[in-house]
């Protein structure tokens, strides 16, 4: 019960920090809106007819998954800052497991990412993205899975870094290529072999493709999906377990050696 209460406390703290920080809440939505509204809209106007799919919807699904994944992973990395300030000073000396701290952080950043994801969904409706109640219900567990997957990925990065400056540099270096290798903005069915290998090594690819697989189920545009949702779920489950176990073990070891 003590460990459970600690998880809930850490998660609640992260959510409250977001809701009280209006500037962060607004800025966290600006880039997804730009990507969807400007980039997706311009691609649809210029190339939509030639490729035969609605690129605005295509970009929307990619940016939704990318934002959830990135928000959760980047949020977990903020534990580097939390070691040195405010509430987390007490967390790291409290008689609770480091595994509890990591899991609470993942859960908290999942809630933070879901708030951002809700804003993106509303923006998509404004732009005319078609959502039925059945589709909304089907997507609900998918967005949670993508957030948890991103959080686990963030643990691996966190476990191998000691400073926030290094984390910011390496995180951007790792994430930026994945925007294109994962097909966030562009179909990737016909990549050159060397890019296809890199794409299959990109965790974001499976998060994006899972979201699209559920979103486009039963639609003629399903042809843009790379693999069935079950295949993507299996890969995500395997990578999630590996990231979480390996990353948490390294994180706990680093903390014990501090």
| Major β-sheet annotation | none
DSSP strand tally: 0
How many structural domains can be distinguished in the coordinates? 1
> What's the average pLDDT?
79
Count, helices? 11
The stretches of 5 or more residues where confidence is low (pLDDT under 50) are none
Instruction: Spell the H/E element sequence.
Output: HHHHHHHHHHH
The portion of residues assigned to helices is: over 70%
**Derived structural class:** mainly alpha
Task: Give the arrangement of secondary structure elements.
Blueprint: H1 2-20, H2 22-51, H3 55-77, H4 79-82, H5 86-93, H6 98-127, H7 133-159, H8 164-181, H9 193-200, H10 203-215, H11 229-256
Helix pairs in contact: 1-6, 2-3, 2-6, 3-6, 3-7, 3-8, 3-10, 6-7, 7-10, 7-11, 10-11
Overview of this structure, please?
This protein is an all-alpha fold. The model has no long low-confidence stretch (mean pLDDT 79). The protein has one domain (2-256). The chain contains 11 helices and no strands. Helix 1 runs parallel beside helix 6, helix 2 (22-51) packs across helix 6 (98-127) and helix 10 (203-215) runs antiparallel to helix 11. 81% of the residues lie in helices and 0% in strands. It has helices at 2-20, 22-51, 55-77, 79-82, 86-93, 98-127, 133-159, 164-181, 193-200, 203-215, 229-256.
Offer a quick outline of the entry:
By secondary structure, the chain is mainly α.
